[in-house]
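Sequence in, structure out.
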Amino acid sequence: MIKMFFFKLILKFLLCSNFLFSAYLKNIPVELIQPDGSKINCLTSGDEFYNYLHDKNDFTIIQSSEDGYYYYAVKSNNTLIPSFYRVNSVNPQDVGLDSGQRISLSEYKLKKQVYLENVEYRDAPTLGTVNNLNVFIRFDGEEEFPNSRAYYDVPFNNPDGPSMLHYFEEVSYNLLTVNTFHFPQCDFSTNISYQDEYPRDYYKPYNEITNPIGYQNDNQSRSREHILLKNAIEFIADEVPEDLDIDSDNDGYVDNVTFLVRGIPGAWADLLWPHRWALYSEEAYINGLRVYDYNLNLEQGGYFTVGTLCHEFFHSLGAPDLYHYWDDISPVAVGGWDVMDASSDIPQSMSAYMKYRYTEWITDLPIISIGGTYEINPLSNPFNNIYRINSSLSNEYFVLEYRVKEGIYEINTPGGDDGLLIYRVNDSFNGNGNGPPDELYLYRPNGTINSNGSFAGAPFSSSLGRTQFNDGTNPNCFLTDGSEGGINISNISDSNEVMSFDLVNLILLANIEGLTFDLDQDGVANPGEEILYDISVSNLSNGINAQNIIASITSSNEGVSIINPVIDFGNINFNNQEESSLIINLEDNIIGNVNFEVLIDAQYTENNQIISYNEIFDFNVEVTLNQSGFPYSTLNEVRSSPIISDLDLDGNFELIFGDHFGSIHAINYSGESVFSDVFPINTDGQIWASPAMADIDNDGFHDIILCSKDKNLYAIDKNGLKFIFETNTQLIGTPTICNLDNDDELEIIISGYSNNQQNIFALNHDGTIVESFNFSSTEKNKSGFSAADFNGNNLDDIVFGTDSKNLYLVYDNGDIADGFPFESDGRFRISPIIIEYLNEKLIVAPSENNTLYVLSQDGSLLFDVIFSNKITTSPSILNYNNSTIIFVGLSDGSIFGIDLFGNIVYEYNLDGGIVGSIMFSDFDNDFIPDLIASTDIGKIYLLNIDGVTFQNFPIIFEFPNSSSPLVFDLDQDLDLEIIGGTSNSVYAIDYKSTGRSDNYWNLFKGNNARNGYYYSTCNYGDLDQNNVINILDAISLVNIIIGNNNLNDYELCQIDLNDDGNVNVLDIIIITNIILE
């Protein structure tokens, strides 16, 4: 007890200027009033250092100092400013705004520093009785608190709980009583509060339009708050009985004061936010004792709960926060297992460690180091309820406690299980507010330095199947820096009245890693292969040798055969490792994670006793169709459908794409970055567009054209940037390369997506404007263009749709074609395509009204197809079975194939909304087309034309697909790869069979120029559509002539080989000669 007393005195001295006590609230509903009287329902989140307004999708909202309206926020030079868009005037995502905009970390730290200047906190005693004073406050013009004093007293003083009084009696093992006395005094059937002379707006931020009486800086905010509280104290001071002990530790200060303020937490940067602070700039006294430390609470907004009161009062006892003030990306440290991290309305207990370090309720932390069996009581028992096990680092160690879901409070811990909890302590820190690094971290399944894992799964017990904790388990005992913790706890018992566990000082670590052999030698374990992996056993013990080590390997996956399931590793001395090979056969249908269980049996000697050791390690080996080196991680979304180029003509292909961070990448078939002197090229905006490619200047090398939301177009070749074309509009549509004039070089068409700006540009190969293209438009074009020669002058004309619900055909000179624009009742936001069929050009355009329009080149509607869900893909084309078929995908996972007469001839239903565009190739070389589609839930489908899914498909990725797929033989091994983007990577699926993609619609917009143009040939003489003219085609022709069948235009084109308009014996002679030749 004496040790603990001096420890707390020293702790107060060391930490008085570093304890930051924060009340972090999330998603508190707020109603804002615009200057015109319109209402905004939004949310507010944050702590006393920084709080902010936002909508339900986390788009930040700020108030303009110029007109007083609330706007969506954007960042300019790392400072939040109003955008052009008032709240609720637009969908912020549609206009390209970014969610989650916050002040910088440095600005946050500065705010916190200013807030804490000159503050020295004093902790209330943790033993005996603390008489807390609670003062009710309202503002000028406000009515009295709506409920009786008895209502507000319950969360403080209910003797049977839940209440602050009852809670601290229970968690302190009846060593601390916290009584609360309310002021101004009144009968409990009514309520009275101190009413300030100023209205609430006086304590809100200044705005010239909407709140001219508000505070204008931090000093004024602090001064107004402290004067308010001083006045409230002086108003009630005479009512506090002199015989009421409000300084139980005799330090001359009131132990604790809480203020309960009428209303809800305020909006942007409002001082009316729940917090603990100190009344250091004003002096107020009660019975000769100075009021200094205080808690300010709000009476509404879901904040006035027993959980909040207990969290804040534990601050008053000296405990720090265990949640992160700023870093909301790193894993949560303790979660719902401690009231100082994530408290529910009815709080759970603080952890045993927090009781030990910050109170006098647990005074001993026994250290165990010798191997053996140990018992531990539940945390609710005041004795034998905590252990410490040291790590190799002097300031980091492990703490064990036993938690049982019982009573009013502990029933609120995560999940539904009792068991042993294991924490990591780094006592170089005080709390987790500035973390990571953290003072206290709870181990839980799948919890790592980068991942939260499952707090509900944190308990260990034999009934839960979680009986071990070491460097090889999940979770493993990693330290703050991610290094191995080096402890081994095993044989954890069931959760009975007392739990037990073994501390084992022999530490063996089994590992399966390093694919050393696979049949096709691509370094990837594929279905149907025999593979070899390295398997190793390491002795990580401190001075303990292991003997007679046997590894027994099994797999629960059917179709996996282990050739050598038992491996003898012999003896391994400490700090040594032995390796062997594991031989595995995989059947053709095996894909995904294959589980292996490695049972290690061994013996070791400790304290002159021979002890048996056994431990089970679980491993997953990925069996995949991924191309070696893929997925290629970008850590952000890739909407850009990649393009394939041989930039330097060395015979090897490069994969080129842009990402959401604005970088343009080039990688090779192994997922390695190439042309490092050129790529990545960093733009200043997100890239939504797909790259287009052609040799636009006839220098013999490919040129890559890509647009960015930074309003610039980038032209790139093997040597780097050729030019940048700057605009005043966001460029998110895919560029199109075409021929607009009579010179030898090619031109580029790009589209813009900003309001009231020129949104169409035609560029020469050198980035100058095409003077002959006399067309301008301020209509927003999200998806780009298609191009083909409509007027027969051997120059390309362009087709595009706009957000203004117009579909245009514009000739190469800039004239709008007769019959256009075609008007719809839905926006055209998906790229149209052009089909040339029997010398007639057709325009195929999806609209947001769920309709697919097919127009003739004069603007007349040939047919439309109305679907029940939104079309989400640019159309793609398949020529098969004597028919040209248009394919589109929908948001509900449907795919439809429509012939050129408007008939639905194919229909498929997949899982998830279809992304990008449907692709076609022949993956198994059977001369029958196969269909590729990606969905927004991370699935890649490969189907034959009859809708039968290929073996091992769909391939499922962890993240949603975000770009159109591409099919190509990237590594030139005669099989095809499916390539595309997800929300954090680029994938390449290597289908292990000879296939071909030539003459198929196998990439976005149909070709590298991204012109969306498809010329439908009728394959003269190839009646069975197998790309070979043989005797079977001649027999089919004879049967057609004999049968005098009714033929459609396409079939007539195929068999009228001399183009004389008749099908007769002359056509038979021609096809016979073709076969003979």
